[in-house]
Design a protein that fits this description.
The protein is an alpha/beta fold and 263 residues long. It is 28% helix and 26% strand. It has a 6-stranded mixed β-sheet, with helices on both faces. Strands 2-1-4-5 form a 4-stranded antiparallel β-sheet. A two-stranded antiparallel ribbon has the order 11-12. It is globular. The N and C termini lie far apart (37 Å). The protein binds adenosine-5'-triphosphate and magnesium ion (MG).
Length: 263
């Protein structure tokens, strides 16, 4: 990995799942240093698709993307080694009940060579990652017995146990109460200060606006990309969501009032 490469480069990227309806249209964005970026936009705007392209899970129909200089199509293995991912809906519904520790180990073992047997230093890293997200006490618990917010923290621990340079998070704050949201956002800010780039899809901009460097407003196309003060403007949001969005200001921070609508 060369640090001379931008973290993320997307160049005229298109994803068309069927032949008629593109999910991403001509997306070009460069992230050239570690930043905390949120991606927002209506349902069906292509947010999850964008993260999956960066992980090499979906191939661009046109254009190209690189992460740390690695091509998402040809060098996805390299990218996954450096990247932690929290999927939008993770159905961890196994026949064998998994402990919290086992779930977090899943973030480490695929990056190891076969045979993938956890070492004592792996278990130490798992313990540290769980402590980092405030779940150190629960590592022998059954994952399925945890609350939604606790599960979300464990999934975050799984994404960051390998100390990734890039974290891709797909709505990690959904189903999480306000106190846990705050805890997670503080963890993310800390990681960002340590040099991790975070790309987080968020349903709601308001809880995160104070924490982020950049906002990407996506509706198949990139409607806007910039700092919160550049992006949080009524005309920009109204274009992305297709209806009038109100922006209010409170204590020096702008908040967007959007509903839950479809693209
Ligand atoms: N595997 C797939 N096959 C076909 N179409 C898909 C597939 N995945 C997503 N799509 C379509 O691509 C578009 C974008 O989907 P995507 O999941 O990226 O949106 P999103 O912005 O993450 O939405 P949400 O806010 O609901 O999570 C949608 O129209 C969706 O139906
Ligand atoms: Mg999605």
């Amino acid at each position: 990995m060369g640090s001379e490469h931008p973290v993320i480069e997307m160049n005229s990227l298109w994803v068309v799942y069927d032949h008629t309806h593109p999910a991403l249209v001509d997306v070009s964005v460069v992230v050239d240093k570690p930043e905390f970026i949120i991606v927002i936009g209506p349902n069906g705007a292509g947010k999850t698709t964008l993260l999956k392209v960066l992980l090499g899970m979906i191939k661009p129909t046109k254009g190209w993307a690189r992460v740390f200089g690695f091509d998402v199509v040809r060098e996805a293995e390299e990218i996954r080694r450096l990247t932690g991912y929290v999927p939008q809906r993770d159905i961890i519904n196994f026949e064998v009940p998994l402990s919290v520790k086992d779930v977090v180990l899943m973030g480490l073992l695929p990056k190891k060579r076969i045979p993938r047997i956890p070492s004592s230093s792996d278990l130490k890293r798992v313990e540290e990652a769980l402590e980092f997200v405030g779940m150190g006490d629960l590592w022998e618990e059954k994952f399925s017995d945890l609350s939604g917010g606790q599960q979300q923290r464990v999934l975050l621990a799984r994404a960051l146990v390998s100390e990734p340079k890039l974290l891709l998070l797909d709505e990690p704050l959904s189903a999480v109460d306000v106190a846990s949201q705050d805890a997670i956002l503080r963890i993310l800010r800390h990681l960002r200060e340590e040099g991790t780039t975070i790309v987080m899809v968020s349903h709601d901009i308001n809880p995160v606006v104070e924490y982020v460097d950049k906002i990407m407003l996506l509706n198949k196309r990139v409607v806007a990309y910039g700092t919160p003060s550049e992006v949080i403007r009524e005309e920009v949001f109204s274009e992305a969501y297709g209806y009038k969005v109100k922006i209010i200001e409170h204590a020096g921070v702008c908040y967007a009032i959007t509903g839950d609508v479809h693209a």
